[in-house]
Amino acid sequence: MSDTDELQVSGEFRMSAKDFRQISAIMHAETGVLLDASKINLAYSRLAKRLRRLQLQSFSEYCALVESADGSGERGAMIAALTTNVTRFFREPHHFEHLKTAILPPLIEQIKKGGKIRLWSAACSSGQEPYSMALTVLALFPEAAKYDVKILATDIDPNMIAFGEAGVYDAGLMADIPPELSRRWFAPLKEQPGFFAAGAELREMVSFRKLNLIGDWPMQGKFHAIFCRNVVIYFDEPTKTKIWDRMIRLMAPTAALYIGHSERVGGPAEQLLRSDGITTYRPKAGMAVPA
């Protein structure tokens, strides 16, 4: 039996080693994400839903569709299905405590005098991370929405962008928000009992945009904090190095970079940053960050 005919996963649909390699190659080329052999079952289970919906009989048919001239829409659906979206409000709370105590106080004094605050959630998923960033600002300065405070929330998955823009979450997802903040900045939905919507002031601070981290970055200005957590871990080393290099170029001199608990900054960027807490980095004093 050739590897083309070898079944990698037994189940409803036929998936060969060739099919999986093709799917993996598309994901790596489009997103930088590596799908190694340990992800075969994950890929099968998530994409089997797409095959059922499209009424296809095998993964070879699915791969042919995704690679075809008319397959760009399904290629996007495949990427969305294989993108991991694990998030919650105030996940890894030490990062938000650092943002609250080390980064925001001097910036808030500056915006009162006409300055600005710029924050970036670089893999925002369904919006809990950027809204947690906004809530951290509002906890310190409830009038922040009236000033020049902007939080950029980006993700590769347009479904997650739409979820974040809607800003509607059920009570279970709200459990990690301090009660005083949820009461003030979210409103219960009468038409959906048990669901809450982000208020206008909270939503006005956050702008959701689709962005591929290995694609073009349209941002020009510097950020005072960048949250890039639990996404770079899925990239190969050259891609990781490139991402960190690009991010450090967008950091203000006193900014913070927050990364996932199992991630580490590497490459040239490592020499330009110093640790300032658990998976928290800031530019070294006197170190010139590349423009």
The N- to C-terminal Cα distance equals 55 Å
User: Could you give the order of the helices and strands?
Assistant: EEHHHHHEHEHEHEEHEEHEHEE
**Total tally of structural domains:** 2
The overall pLDDT average reads: 91
Helical proportion? 40-55%
> Quick one: CATH class of the largest domain?
Alpha Beta
Number of helices: 11
- CA-based gyration radius: 21 Å
CATH topology of the largest domain, which one?
Rossmann fold
Give the CATH architecture of the largest domain: 3-Layer(aba) Sandwich
How many strands, which pairing sense, and closed or not: the largest β-sheet? 7 strands, mixed
Number of strands: 12
Alpha-beta content class: alpha/beta
Largest sheet: spatial strand order: 8-4-3-9-10-12-11
Strand content: 15-25%
Question: Would you mind describing this structure in some detail?
Answer:
The chain has 291 residues and is an alpha/beta fold. The protein folds into 2 domains: 76 residues, Chemotaxis Receptor Methyltransferase Cher, domain 1, CATH 1.10.155; 191 residues, 3-Layer(aba) Sandwich (Rossmann fold). Helix 6 links the parallel strand 3 and strand 4. The radius of gyration is 21 Å and the shape is globular. The N and C termini lie far apart (55 Å). The N terminus is likely disordered.
Topology summary:
Elements: E1 7-9, E2 15-16, H1 17-31, H2 40-54, H3 59-67, H4 72-82, H5 93-111, E3 117-121, H6 128-140, E4 149-155, H7 158-166, E5 168-170, H8 179-185, E6 186-188, E7 195-198, H9 200-204, E8 206-210, E9 223-228, H10 237-248, E10 251-259, H11 268-272, E11 273-275, E12 280-283
Parallel strand pairs: 3-4, 3-9, 4-8, 9-10
Antiparallel strand pairs: 1-2, 5-7, 6-7, 10-12, 11-12
Helix pairs in contact: 2-4, 5-6
